[in-house]
Amino acid sequence: MSITTQDVAHVANLARLALTDNEMEQYTNQLNKILQHAEELQKLDLENVQPTSHVLPIHNVMREDKSRVWLTNEQALANAPDKDAGQFRVPAVMEG
Predict the structure, then answer these.
(1) What is the pTM assigned to this prediction?
(2) Which ranges of the sequence are coiled-coil (predicted)?
(3) Where are the domains of the chain?
(4) pLDDT tens digits for 60-76?
């Protein structure tokens, strides 16, 4: 399969792109090189290659969830300069 300048012109028209003849020739060559590379990849024997989502083996590096004792709401708000209804109160950052 190969791309023609007419194919590039058609796609450019659909995308509402105004391409010069020079650009259409350039994109035609580039797209054909991409297709040639894809055809080469199709020839590879991948029968015994396991599918992967990443090139390198990646393991979950997050720690296990453990139940801990945290501050109560009252302790967290104990030194707050301004609080209201169990929440920190701060100055407005946007004008209404």
Answers:
(1) 0.51
(2) 17-44
(3) 5-42
(4) 888 888 999 999 999 99
